[in-house]
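In the laboratory, one determines a bound structure by crystallizing the protein with its ligand and collecting diffraction data. In a computational setting the workflow is compressed into a single prediction: the sequence and the ligand go in, and a structural description comes out. We illustrate the idea with magnesium ion.
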Amino acid sequence: MTGQPIIELRGVGKWFGGQRVLNRLDLAVRVGEMVTLIGPSGSGKTTVLRCMNFLDAYDEGEVLIKGRLLGYRGQGRQPRDRDRAAHIAEVRRPLAMVFQQFNLWPHLSVLENVAAPLILGKRLPRHEARRRAAAALAHVGMADRATAWPSRLSGGQQQRVAIARALALEPELLLLDEPTSALDPERVEEVLDVINALARQGMTMVMATHEMCFAAAVSTRVIFMAEGSIVESGAPENLFRRPASARLKTFLAPWFKRPLQDDGPAARGNDRAAGE
Ligand SMILES: Nc1ncnc2c1ncn2[C@@H]1O[C@H](COP(=O)(O)OP(=O)(O)OP(=O)(O)O)[C@@H](O)[C@H]1O
Ligand SMILES: [Mg+2]
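The predicted complex, in structure-token form:
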């Protein structure tokens, strides 16, 4: 793929206390890619996503969003000064994030939940924010629940509203952190369907997930992390069918006891361009 990456990580490292949790990661994501992060619990998937939009400050290296340094002033200078909050917000404007726990405001209706960031963050007039929010809700099949309270929705419906809230910001890159792992099993599919549709529409995404079949089906690129490092990355048909490292083989064993069939998950979703 060509063109400037939407986001680029160069040698990104992160510590929590004395523990190194990200180990000099290099990663570039370009328009139209669907990158999934897989790996054992504690391998650093959430931390990468949070460093990508500076919800967590990274300690070394650089995160560039459309070529602009995120979080610090003085590119290449050490020690670095943390950037002003307003400038950080401006640099990360092309990004939106969907969390595991939805994070909807319980005292706002579904429509108001989606419209609020447009009014408060983007300073859109109320009527324009509500119009955009309604369109985003329609996008995820939730238009008919616009006046409901979040507490009256199932987990799957709440997560679809959370996705609508992110989409209403018209992001160029959507970050999703295990968007289905807090859901009852019967609610997982409806959320994966929404994400799959977004992927097919060409939305650029980075998603941490434990849903291996889904990752195999929709990703243009899969990144396997362990202990804060990228161990392997590549097109899903390679990574899932021919894992190179013993670590990835061991990690995948419970999901892929039998080899994937040609008409299996990895063969679906191949109407998207292959990553890398
Ligand atoms: N706020 C924090 N303070 C201290 N340590 C943290 C914090 N957040 C994460 N960690 C540690 O950083 C490491 C990476 O955690 P992270 O949440 O990124 O993993 P993960 O791959 O997302 O795991 P999971 O699959 O369970 O969501 C872990 O060792 C974790 O204990
Ligand atoms: Mg996580």
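The radius of gyration is 19 Å. Keep in mind that any predicted model is a hypothesis to be tested, not a measurement.
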